[in-house]
Amino acid sequence: MTNDTTASPSAARLSVMVGLLLVTLCSWPRYQLGGYDTHSGLLVMVAVALAVVIIAYWRRMTEKQRRLLPIRLKWLAMSFVVGGVVMATWHYGIASTLAGWSTVLSHGATAGLLLHAILTGWRARR
């Protein structure tokens, strides 16, 4: 027996893909400011590819799943805020060395995406 989230593209999966795109974009300044032009170029190519996949995936979603997407994106945004606060607290409050804003942004976005993906998986199992 399959449910709606396993039979067709789901809002949960799309929100994780959008989160991955955001992590990629949030990591770009870190590499650009560090002088890693090759890495920056690769991140741009990955971001473009992810955007194409996200658009194609969204077009395949059912209307029901499209209506669920804003709720999932709100959870994603909250997860990114929590991840950013955790990483800012870590880098500026607990860690012995201060990190630049681009590192905190990159790490915060990654932590937020991990939190969102874990919570999304737990919700799907219930």
UniProtKB/TrEMBL annotation:
Entry keyword set: Membrane, Transmembrane, Transmembrane helix
Source organism superkingdom: Bacteria
Transmembrane helix is among the record's keywords: yes
Transmembrane segments: 12-30, 42-59, 71-92, 98-119
Protein name as annotated: Transmembrane protein
Species of provenance: Chromohalobacter canadensis
